[in-house]
Amino acid sequence: MRVAVVGATGAVGSTMLELLRDRAFPAEELVPFASERSAGRALDHGAGQGLVVRALSLEAVEGFDLALFSAGSGTSAEWAPRFAAAGAVVIDNSSHWRMYEDVPLVVAEVNPEALGGHRGIVANPNCSTMQMVLALAPIRDRAGIERVVVSTYQSVSGTGQRAVEELMEQSRAVVAGEPVRSPEIYPHQIAFNVLPQVEAFRDGDLYTTEERKMMAETRKILGEPELPLSATCARVPVLQGHSESINVETTEPLTAQACRELLAAAPGLAVVDDPAAALYPLATAAAGRDEVLVGRIRPDPSRERCLNLWVVGDNLRKGAALNAVQLAELVVERAAPRAKEPAAPPAAA
Ligand code: A2P
To answer: pTM for this one?
Structure first.
């Protein structure tokens, strides 16, 4: 099997390479792609193995079985169909293809059956959506969901490597008592600050594109197009790991203890919930872990059949690279057959 990783020098792409190696993914050949800037660079792939980065070209996309993408929406829009046309199944981490009707949007533990209908491109959900849906799906299955209100506290690695560098540089300047240079990645200083803006505001929209993604993608993954959901996304000066406060109203009653037991038994989740001992999910604890952590599970005193949860996940792992690699594993396992018709127009922009 020949596997391409597009965006292999980036924060998510390098984690994809690491996970393919650590999970012993059955690839005979692994080819890292990045921009022209990185072509020729050697990447350490462990055990003395070096992988040489290639630039994308029409010839270079030929002959792959799988292509994992995390190189931004523009690159995915242009190159994913080319890899797919050349015979690869593309697992795309960008937002570009997620809301296309004929592109499955899949969380490995939640809706793997959706993979069956793919036509060459499978979309990996947004990182904040991914960890929330992991916690919501078992609750939905047990008690039904009437409404969800979520607030996020997202780390800078979700934006990419340059955002990590911006936070580090600003933090150093603040600690040294030096002036902070004008930010280049975020609209404001991120060090020692909280920005109630993740991504962009489209013309006339009071919600950001990240908040829109969380709402639309959650509905698509759960197969509940009308699910009432409200999201507020904030960027915080954390390197790795997104935290979320989730308020969920259920159809049937569900006690906090029943919810704790339910989530403890659900795949991909680990319950960390002993507040008296100061044990709850932390970004520093979630970073580097495969499981999404859930804690602070408690009834909402202001409303019946309503629970509050605190959910933390490693945005580079389960939020991106890990789920992409799990989907690649599922595609191989199931050898998901491709439907014959060409791709339909998008369901939504
Ligand atoms: P490069 O390192 O050569 O810029 P991150 O999300 O951490 O910012 O990483 C983005 C990834 O996408 C990097 O691997 C980057 O490569 C890659 N990338 C950016 N633009 C392109 C492009 N036009 N073609 C291929 N890869 C790209």
So the answer is: 0.94
